[in-house]
Each structure stands twice: as structure tokens, then as C-alpha cells.
Amino acid sequence: MCRNPQPQGVQASAWLLATLMMFTGEAAMARSLLLAEPSQLAGQWQAVLSGPQEPAQTPPSSICLVELRADQTLVGQTACLGQWLGDEPVHWFTEPDGLSLIGKQNSRIHLQLRQEQHYQVTLKSGQVVTLERSPPQTTP
């Protein structure tokens, strides 16, 4: 007669743990695939151009101020941003893992979500463009 060396309680616990992990993982994955609403991202943003290594301070010429509008158009210093991207962006849309900018010539640049309110793309030159919410303006 062959006996199972593990008590039934341990097997049941392992099965329960595996089942919970499966359901929790599916729920977490489903949440991560939710698209942000355009109204959630609408507002003032700054695009920052930096080299492969982060400089100590970003020079002002490496910042473009743009506005993402709820109608998914892009306004502001779009020509500045277009110089870096190779096509001036005029539209945008959200994706599960970031957002995409659509240029006047229908080019598409995908920016990966790096952390909340920070999107990033590495250009062929090795430079990095980061799109981040503009800090709130303070009035004296």
C-alpha cells in the first residue's frame, strides 16, 4: 500500500492558493487593460527631451508645452515636439500600455506608460522624450 507523504490539508491549501492566484491574476490583468478616458488625460503637459543619460538639469530648449484636449486633438508647442519626433503631432489616443500621438503626415508615435502621468519613447538617436503632466502654475 502506497501512502501519500503529504497530508490532505496541505494539498487542499495548495489547490486553494493556486486557484486564488489564478483569479487574482486575471482580475489584475483586466484592470491593467482598461483605457484611460480622454477627459482623464486632457490638460497641460510638458514634453521633455533628454539624452540617453538623464542630465542634472534640463535646459529650457528641451521642453515643449502642449495641451491634450478631450476631443483628442493636441495644441500648443506641437511644432517643437514635431522637430524631435519627425512629424508634428495633431491627434492622440490612449492605449492599454500608453498613448499614441498621430502626426500631420499620419505617422504614429507610441509612448509607453512609465509611471502614472509619465509617458516615454526612446528615439532612434537614443534620446528620450518624456511626456508628463505640467506642474500646476502658482500665482504670487
UniProtKB/TrEMBL annotation:
Transmembrane segments: none annotated. InterPro entries: Inh, Inh/Omp19, Protease_inh_B-barrel_dom. It is found in: Periplasm. Gene3D superfamilies: 2.40.128.10. Pfam families: Inh (PF02974). Keywords: Metalloenzyme inhibitor, Metalloprotease inhibitor, Periplasm, Protease inhibitor, Signal. Residues 37-133 form the Alkaline proteinase inhibitor/ Outer membrane lipoprotein Omp19 domain. The keyword Signal applies. Belongs to the protease inhibitor I38 family. This is Alkaline proteinase inhibitor.
